[in-house]
Amino acid sequence: MSFKVLVPIKRVVDYAVKIRVKGDKSGVETNGVKMSMNPFDEIAVEEAIRLKEKGIATEVVAVSMGPKTCQETIRGSIAMGADKGIHVDGGTTDLQPLAVAKLLKKLVDKEKPNLVILGKQAIDDDSNQTGQMLAGLLNWPQATFASKVDIDKSSPNSVKVTREIDGGLETLSMKLPAIITCDLRLNEPRYAKLQNIMKSKKAELQVLTPQELGVDTNTNLKTISVEEPPKRTGGVKVDSIDAVITSLKKFALI
Amino acid sequence: MLNHLSKLVSNRYIGTTICSKRCYTTFKYNKLNDKDIEEFKSILNNEETLLIRDKDDLVSFNSDWMKKYKGNSQLLLKPRNTEQVSSILRYCNERKLALVPQGGNTGLVGGSVPYDDEIILSMSLMNKINDFDPVTGVVTCEAGVILQQLEDYLEPLGYTVPFDLGAKGSCQLGGNISTNAGGIRLLRYGSLHGNVLGLEAVLANGTVLNLNSTLRKDNTGYDLKQLFIGSEGTLGVITKVSLITPPKPTSVNVALLACDSFSSVKKLLIQAKTKLGDILSAFEFMDRGCIDLVLRHQPLQEPFSEKPKFYILLETSGFNETHDQEKLNEFLEYIMEQGLTVDGTVATDSKNQSTIWKFRETITESLGKEGAVYKYDLSLPIDQFYELVEVMRLRLGSKANVVGFGHVGDANLHLNISTPNQKYSKEMINLIEPFVYEYTSKHNGSISAEHGIGLMKKDHLHYSKTSSSIQLMKLLKNSMDPNHILNPNKVLPF
């Protein structure tokens, strides 16, 4: 019985890079900056591969949207164990979560996966919207911030997900097909083996465009400006209780 | 005498010389008195905080990082500038008071702590970065600048310090230079003898020797600065340094490769040098024993299921991501074809890169957690490189866990002998020494590749240097510091 898992992944500025805002305030400088797979997406890929290893999933398909450089990221997931990679070439268009969700819906209609598993948010925009919007567009059930995913091998038509919420842990059961978004504690992604890294470089990827999928990627969102947070000014030392009170009054804190 | 020794052993300290402490050299020193204290106070502008005399406050300065050596200094001085250092040394030379120059106190051979009651001269307050030239990449700073501090200063300017070591959060430049520190980047940037362009040092009699230069090329007379690089504070106190710094690479790749024999490691090294050439920036190795140790004590998972005998950590650094990736791929394809590696992984992002480095960087800490560790830092011909580890294993049998790791790219082995759950013991030392040194000497290796001589190896210097060279070293020491006030009882066997 076939069980396909679709894993959308995003190429983002590496988490360790000290980001700089572009001079024209249009965004963050990404030229010549180290890029990597979004850490939460890596966790999603790992979870999908584990489902395959458990004998539940039969195929893992990774998809990424954006310029040609996304293909590197897709190959990274193939090196980890994904079977197939799809690149939606959006060129230099800034793809907002809603556009991504619409594109994913078209891919879901094409690929017919049993499960779509995504990272909970991308570390560049921290939107935390794509998974939820996709669920809305597809009218599928969703479980976000997953820290545990359980599918019964003998009856793989529902999934039990434990989510991290403010009050603790919540366990939900959903009928498949469904959407899951992953949180940090779901798993520890594996190291990709050398042979697989080499193989992934030669892997053939399916390339599609938003036009071919019939999606208008225009959204009504426009970034007006991106600025650095105000620089932290030094504190002031005072040497008496009276001085403390004067300062507090001066800064209108009391 | 034996009681004294056993007391040292039970407190986990080792005295490596047999004579009683007061006669530590044939040189006569005076004891500190109140007049001396007053004089130091006046030299330090009567700033009381620049003198430390409290016994408890002095504990950490009197002992080395590994808690293997313990001194008995009664006074620590913290000069703010070169003039103060000069006045202190001039006075100490007249009064025949011995001193130990101390930086970050991260040395591993007992060179940075007093043997007995020498005054500790701390360079910590001289921590200003004076100048940086963005065209030549030359930075000038005071000797108390911490390595990490300099790296943080250079990073936003697009440059990097040409050496890197585990102690970077605490070690100071003055100490790095006096010990000719090596580290993981020596393979790429060479030694400090090449990267230090100039320095300012104060001699034993207080003379300030200005050898400070930012010139890349300067062949005018004897290159005196080389005397201070690696002489471990015995010929002068370094107060300022000018270092040439390379541009910071923007494209870094880290790979972890598994090998099942040391001969594959050697072949891998050749291929790395020829195929990766100018972008190769680190080539470190660790054996099975090290990996098992790290897995026992650190929250890391083993990346390979086959439990290989050796791991190689390979790093490339360059300025063109595409170009470097191509070179790396060619190299990886080749070594896989040739069967030089049984498995491997390449870090895909900086988190993975630092995780892979953790395997190498946490070996020392993991060893420390098991019990007493006997450390040997040796340079050996590459063919005998791992042989010594196997020989020691046979020799010590079940008494110890012998592991080897280190800068195999520079033929520098860190031989570590761990006795789990046990304290340091003279018996164990006798089983290891002088055997290890004799073996090294027989193969024309070095008994100290990068850690230096300090207190630990001064009586073993002859294993790596001829008697005429040791004689010349003594001649230099006697003429530059006739009263032997600078770091006595270290480096040379007087």
From TrEMBL, chain A:
Principal location class: mitochondrion
Organism placement in taxonomy: Eukaryota, Amoebozoa, Evosea, Eumycetozoa, Dictyostelia
One Pfam entry name: ETF
Assembly description: Heterodimer of an alpha and a beta subunit.
SMART domains per the UniProt record, alphabetical: ETF
Domain Electron transfer flavoprotein alpha/beta-subunit N-terminal: 25-217
GO molecular function: electron transfer activity
Family: Belongs to the ETF beta-subunit/FixA family.
Protein's job: The electron transfer flavoprotein serves as a specific electron acceptor for several dehydrogenases, including five acyl-CoA dehydrogenases, glutaryl-CoA and sarcosine dehydrogenase. It transfers the electrons to the main mitochondrial respiratory chain via ETF-ubiquinone oxidoreductase (ETF dehydrogenase).
Keywords carried by this UniProt record: Electron transport, Mitochondrion, Transport
Protein source organism: Tieghemostelium lacteum (Slime mold)
Transmembrane helix listed as a keyword: no
Location relative to the cell: Mitochondrion matrix
The protein's name: Electron transfer flavoprotein subunit beta
One Gene Ontology cellular component annotation held by this UniProt entry: mitochondrial matrix
Coiled coil (UniProt feature): none
SUPFAM superfamilies in alphabetical order: Adenine nucleotide alpha hydrolases-like
Keyword Cell wall biogenesis/degradation: no
GO BP terms: amino acid catabolic process; fatty acid beta-oxidation using acyl-CoA dehydrogenase
TrEMBL record, chain B:
InterPro entries: FAD-bd_oxidored_4_C (IPR004113), FAD-bd_PCMH (IPR016166), FAD-bd_PCMH-like_sf (IPR036318), FAD-bd_PCMH_sub1 (IPR016167), FAD-bd_PCMH_sub2 (IPR016169), FAD-linked_Oxase-like_C (IPR016164), FAD-oxidored/transferase_4 (IPR051264), Oxid_FAD_bind_N (IPR006094)
One GO CC term on file: mitochondrion
GO MF assignments: FAD binding; oxidoreductase activity
Keyword Flavoprotein: yes
All residue ranges annotated as the FAD-binding PCMH-type domain in the record: 69-248
Cofactor(s) essential for the protein: FAD
Keyword Lyase: no
Keywords, alphabetical: FAD, Flavoprotein, Oxidoreductase
The organism's place on the tree of life at top rank: Eukaryota
Similarity section: Belongs to the FAD-binding oxidoreductase/transferase type 4 family.
Protein known as: Putative actin interacting protein
Annotated source species: Tieghemostelium lacteum (Slime mold)
